[in-house]
């Protein structure tokens, strides 16, 4: 593989592993991204305050979403944007409003299935608990119990002799509730009191919560030559991390013909329809306010949007060696083969020929190879924030990403070179 001409190498992949471990929830992911941007000179702006048109890097946090942008010196109000879009959420098990449950001598936590996880991958895993606590005084606090706390125990084969012939059948309600202790009585409020103690809060301080489980097993290099990476939430924190690094790098460029933007949304895994999702108003509001803060008019806003391009970066499917027939016979993306261009003529992906040219030019500039992905015609195609972004904002959008295995598993797998190849391509795209 040729050496990319961008700023990132294998050290980027090692930093990705640190990012994954520090980001068990969307709230932690955007906090980690903001910390990296702060070190690059970006500053947070509040949506409730008036914005100015000064140059430099800025970002907005809203729940599990972040939008960040860099305004070059002397840029015109009608200057188009170059956006990298991604999402911060991953399928998992999330705590219900009344979490304390159990029976038959076991204490359990009641969970709801978020998104479309591979349920079997959550069995017999040591799980931590993390998320956001809403406090009585109106503030919020992140919490992360980063140790083995819960477990969804699998039924022994002695009690399910047909599992190998009939397949594992899991009922989302009956079979996916984790245990976290022993006891004959369910005491309502136990879990939240435990989290208050762990967070140094007083009893009754927590009045709301958004909590989710995660595997505490850390990311790791895999294989004889350490050419693979296994880890959680690569879909889609791999893209969030790459886009954050790329934006920070682009902000140091001497000249920029576009305004580079990172837009990382929550709730992609369940449809993006929320105030922090790609189908909400957040991105459009931030871009418009940026134009108007620099003295622009609605005409400037229209001109800027007309020239804007978004790369929707999300993971895709590498060819699976045990199920190669499930892939399109002429499109077999390989690990460490570079980022993938995702195409679907029914607009499950937003890529068209003109968008392909934009991405090809960025990869050529970065010295990065890329591959193409389409689904087998007999298989339904997934989707991304790409078509939503294109339709909601009238922005040219291209779907790309990194090819992985075990998508939606509690632990996914990618090539160790692909994260930094993607990041280098994103830098070239943002720099124009």
UniProtKB/TrEMBL annotation:
Q: Which UniProt keywords apply?
A: Aminopeptidase, Hydrolase, Metal-binding, Metalloprotease, Protease, Zinc
Q: Does the keyword Chaperone apply?
A: no
Designated gene of the protein: apeB
Q: Name one GO cellular component term.
A: cytoplasm
One Gene Ontology molecular-function label: aminopeptidase activity
State the organism of origin. Streptomyces alfalfae
* Family per similarity comment: Belongs to the peptidase M18 family.
InterPro entries xrefs:
M18_aminopeptidase_2 (IPR022984), Peptidase_M18 (IPR001948), Peptidase_M18_dom2 (IPR023358)
Cofactor(s) needed for function: Zn(2+)
Q: Source organism's superkingdom?
A: Bacteria
- Record Pfam families: Peptidase_M18
Query: Which annotated residues bind Zn(2+)?
Result: 87, 158, 408
Supply the name of the protein.
Probable M18 family aminopeptidase 2
One Gene Ontology biological process? proteolysis
């Amino acid at each position: 593989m040729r050496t990319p001409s961008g700023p990132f190498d294998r050290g980027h992949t090692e930093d990705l592993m640190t990012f994954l471990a520090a980001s068990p929830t969307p709230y932690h992911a955007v906090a980690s991204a903001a910390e990296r941007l702060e070190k690059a000179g970006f500053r947070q702006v509040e949506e409730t305050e008036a914005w100015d048109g000064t140059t430099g890097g800025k970002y907005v946090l809203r729940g599990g979403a972040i939008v960040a942008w860099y305004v070059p010196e002397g840029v015109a109000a009608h200057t188009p944007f170059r956006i990298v879009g991604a999402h911060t959420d991953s399928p998992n098990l999330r705590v219900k409003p009344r979490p304390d449950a159990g029976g038959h001598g076991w204490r359990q936590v009641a969970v709801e299935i978020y998104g479309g996880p591979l349920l079997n991958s959550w069995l017999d895993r040591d799980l931590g608990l993390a998320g956001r606590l809403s406090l009585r005084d109106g503030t919020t606090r992140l919490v992360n119990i980063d140790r083995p706390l819960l477990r969804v125990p699998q039924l022994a084969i002695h009690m399910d002799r047909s599992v190998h012939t009939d397949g594992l059948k899991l009922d989302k309600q009956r079979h996916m509730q984790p245990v976290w202790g022993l006891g004959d009585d369910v005491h309502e409020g136990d879990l939240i009191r435990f989290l208050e103690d762990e967070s140094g809060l007083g009893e009754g301080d927590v009045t709301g919560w958004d909590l989710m489980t995660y595997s505490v097993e850390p990311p790791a290099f895999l294989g004889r030559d350490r050419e693979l990476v296994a880890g959680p939430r690569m879909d889609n924190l791999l893209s969030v991390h790459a886009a954050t690094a790329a934006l920070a790098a682009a902000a140091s460029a001497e000249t920029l013909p576009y305004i580079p933007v990172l837009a990382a949304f929550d709730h992609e895994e369940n449809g993006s329809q929320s105030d922090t999702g790609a189908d909400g108003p957040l991105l459009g509001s931030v871009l418009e306010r940026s134009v108007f803060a620099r003295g622009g008019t609605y005409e400037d806003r229209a001109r800027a949007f007309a020239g804007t391009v978004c790369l929707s970066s999300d993971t895709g499917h590498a060819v699976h060696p045990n199920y190669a027939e499930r892939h399109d016979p002429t499109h077999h993306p390989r690990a460490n083969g570079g980022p993938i261009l995702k195409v679907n003529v029914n607009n499950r992906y937003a890529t068209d020929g003109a968008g392909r040219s934009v991405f090809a030019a960025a990869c050529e500039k970065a010295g990065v190879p890329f591959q193409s992905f389409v689904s087998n015609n007999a298989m339904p195609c997934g989707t991304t924030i790409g078509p939503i972004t294109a339709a909601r904002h009238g922005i040219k959008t291209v779907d790309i990403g990194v090819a992985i295995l075990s998508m939606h598993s509690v632990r996914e797998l990618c090539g160790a070179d692909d994260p930094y190849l993607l990041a280098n391509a994103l830098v070239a795209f943002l720099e124009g």
